[in-house]
Amino acid sequence: MADPFAEGGLGELESPLYREALAQLDRVAALMGLDDNIHARLRVPQRSTIVTFPFRREGYFEVETVFAYRVQHVLAMGPTKGGIRYAPDVNLGEVAALAMLMTWKTSLVGLPFGGAKGGVRVDPTVLTRPEIQRLTRRYTAEMINVIGPDTDIPAPDMGTNEQVMAWIMDTYSQHVGHTEPGVVTGKPPELGGSVARREATGRGLVSLLPAAATHVGLTMEDARIVVHGFGNVGQYAALAAHEMGARVVAVSDVSGGVYNDAGLDIPKLQEWVAENGTLAGLPEVDTVTNDELFTLDCDILIPAAVGGVITVDNADDIKARIIAEGANGPTTLQADKILNERNIFTIPDILANAGGVTVSYFEWVQDLQNYFWSEGEIVARLREIMGRAFEEVLNISISEGYDMRTAALVKGIRRVAKAKLVRGVYP
Q: Which fold has domain 11-180?
């Protein structure tokens, strides 16, 4: 296999997350005997766009220049799909790694997409709403020939939301001369967004828990659940588990964690966070740190915040029997090995949090057809797709002797490899 990184490391793609993504791919490629040419092709993104642009700050005469990215990993599967994040540490390597993981995720659940990701290197927490709007509209204009309903469909990610998607849709529509709702997903329902998109990732994850619990000999009724992260994914995962009859004993956010062995009132927590911004100061609960949260006695642990939080430093102390990864890359490779040796059943991120992109797919289809489904139809189809993907991954895990993460990657990579082989090489 010709290694595109043979000279000088990873070059512009250098980042810890990209090295983790490559290590995953390389390990699984060796296990499944992946064609060397296909392997080499999948190790690098097919298209990477880097731009710099100015945007006006609140003083109008103060202009700031930022770096921005859009990476399309694989174009063989159809349009590419992936979020846009605004964060001060965004870089090309991180965006490329997330685009690669999105390829495996969309392939795993059978969606007609390749993986993509975008980002702007900026701290959105210090920007006003008008500044974020100007930033978003300029980013869209810079990427106007990259994105589109038939080429690359962005969605919200860290630091962005449905309002940002609305501005992208409007800017794109102004440039092409007609309203084009299918250019983004995760936008407000008033503009063609899905009524179930906001909670899709969390609820999709929890829909897998009954089957996972049955597999390891648990029941969901009164199962003890701990959720790391109480943002969009964590809130709706906790709420769905609470509604299912499980006992959510602890959750956390950037301010720390709250704990109640009898079970937390999740709707009450949501109201508190909506009013106060964080969990800090919530009455009638015990407090725990984010580090302590991972060592609590529980049946199911849901890391739903950021990557790299389950490491060699805490993997031996985790007491959960099931880990369902709501975040992207929450478990390092070294920690994953420890969890497998301890026989902790892991639902990997590319499967567990695929509910978001699945409902994004539904939104895109509805926008193209101008025919919209009910919330009940969306939820039913989400559960069907997620459940089928889980059973297929579990069958590969059992029949081929892989852990669940490896089985999920094998399933996703196989489909992409077959598509590239049958399409061939042009010219």
A: Rossmann fold (3.40.50)
